Amino acid sequence: MTKEDDRFIQVREGEPLFDTRRKTGRVIAYRVFSASVFFCICCIWLYRVTVPTEIDENRTGLIWFGLYWVVVQSLWWNPVWRFTFNDRLSRRYGNDLPSLDVFVCTADSVIEPPLMVVNTVLSAAALDYPPEKLAVYLSDDGGSELTFYALAEAAEFAKTWVPFCKKFDAEPRSPATYLSCKASKLGSAAAEEVAMLYREMAERIETAARLGRIPDEARLKYVEGFSQWDPDATRRNHGTILQILVDGRKANTVTLVYLSREKRPEHHHHFKAGAMNALIRVSSKITCGRIILNVDCDMYSNNSKSARDALCILLDEKEGKEIAFVQFPQCFENLTRNDLYGSMMRVGADVEFKGLDGNGGPLYIGTGCFHRRDVICGRKYGEEEEESEDISETEMIKALASCNYEENSQWGKEMGVKYGCPVEDVITGLAIQCRGWKSAYLNPKKKAFVGVAPTNLHQMLVQQRRWSEGDFQSIVRFGMPKERSALD
Ligand SMILES: O=c1ccn([C@@H]2O[C@H](COP(=O)(O)OP(=O)(O)O[C@H]3O[C@H](CO)[C@@H](O)[C@H](O)[C@H]3O)[C@@H](O)[C@H]2O)c(=O)[nH]1
Ligand SMILES: [Mn+2]
């Protein structure tokens, strides 16, 4: 009997858009192994507790390690694998998909070179998604004219790049990566032209970065944007800069927006969490995408289907309704030899997150995550979704990214991304789950997002220390009933 080809059958009512599978054999084998280890741990505990203290001074350490082992079993006990049916999504919804806002965050034009940042923006703009439903917002906490200039250049280049990707089904859609790995086999005239345009753009951006000077023609061409920088503006002290570089609402193309929220030395800016909240408010008055994708500026989209994959989960009629966000793993392309610093996080990505997914859902890890806008804004599970907000004028929208806006408000507490924790993403995800939502983990063969991992010991230690401090804080905050009810 031939297997029915899924592409040619009509989607039946109630047919799921994704499937959740368990590998029973593997799971049973692991559970047997785990039970045998547990038996041994119990024997050690028994011995340590019965033996006199004078002989055994290491009692607490071993008991603690045993307890730790028991607790982390929850991560390995019930792993699940999710598979999406993209073709069913296309047949059921066609181009009638919810609007999607992509938030790219950058903070420093030296550490995060503008050319890398715009490659991430371009890869997101070229996602396989109806262009008029897609908007990419770049939040620049560095308040850098150079980053703005690079985005303006990228907005021009996007006019060629996005149609090119769609026409030739190019992958991956970060131009730098595509052109470097396909350079020798480009062949077609269209590809040569796009490669030439990219090289010219990259050259202009890199020259401006090297000289620390924006070309005069560009200042004139984008005068509306550049005029928003005061002569005495610094990265820690400037007003809101907001420029809609491409307004796709009018032109049936992808919307591109530059935002650098107001910064004043006397106001705490709350790092990336503050940037995310400003983006949530500002975008709510421009495109107000029902779905929000958050990526770090060094994590380009490597698989143009990721947005559709995430929607297979979020739009599924049966199980999707209770899922608040879909998290993809963090993958890296610059791993050191033998992955010296363990940046691949293989245990986390291949095992533990699948285990978390089997127990209510993975954590939100700050990048490669698709959220429902209303949920990240504070909606509880079971409440009705509200109508989208009004569209306003640019000057009114700028007030939403000012330092004072959040005073005496719930932003950073009940609304948006939470403040006061080095891993704002993890604690925000946990708070969403405390409000009754689930989340889902997708780890497709073709990596959805690919980024840059720390390349030296110093960078790695800084990152690990921040994560450990943040994760520990999250455990303490969620462990205490008073804090926990404040997060609910
Ligand atoms: O004041 C700030 C500081 C950082 N960022 C951006 O936040 C992202 C992550 O910062 P980074 O310094 O690269 O931290 P990592 O340790 O690499 O980031 C991981 O860990 C963070 C904390 O959990 C998450 O927010 C990230 O998404 C996750 O990739 C980058 O795009 C930054 O540009 C801002 O926008 N504003
Ligand atoms: Mn990073």
UniProtKB/TrEMBL annotation:
What is the scientific name of the source organism?
Brassica oleracea var. oleracea
| One GO CC annotation | endomembrane system
A Pfam family that this protein carries is Cellulose_synt
UniProt lineage:
Eukaryota, Viridiplantae, Streptophyta, Embryophyta, Tracheophyta
Entry's SUPFAM superfamilies?
A: Nucleotide-diphospho-sugar transferases
Gene3D superfamilies per the UniProt record, alphabetical: Spore Coat Polysaccharide Biosynthesis Protein SpsA, Chain A
| Name used for this protein in its record | Cellulose synthase
Q: Which residues bind UDP-alpha-D-glucose?
A: 112, 141
- Name its cellular compartments: Endomembrane system
Q: Which domain of life is it from?
A: Eukaryota
Single GO term (MF): cellulose synthase (UDP-forming) activity
What are the boundaries of the signal sequence? none
Please tell me where Mn(2+) binds in this chain.
Answer: 272, 296
Q: How does it sit in the membrane?
A: Multi-pass membrane protein
Membrane-crossing ranges are: 28-47, 62-81
Swiss-Prot/TrEMBL keywords: Cell wall biogenesis/degradation, Glycosyltransferase, Membrane, Transferase, Transmembrane, Transmembrane helix
Q: Name one GO biological process term.
A: cell wall organization
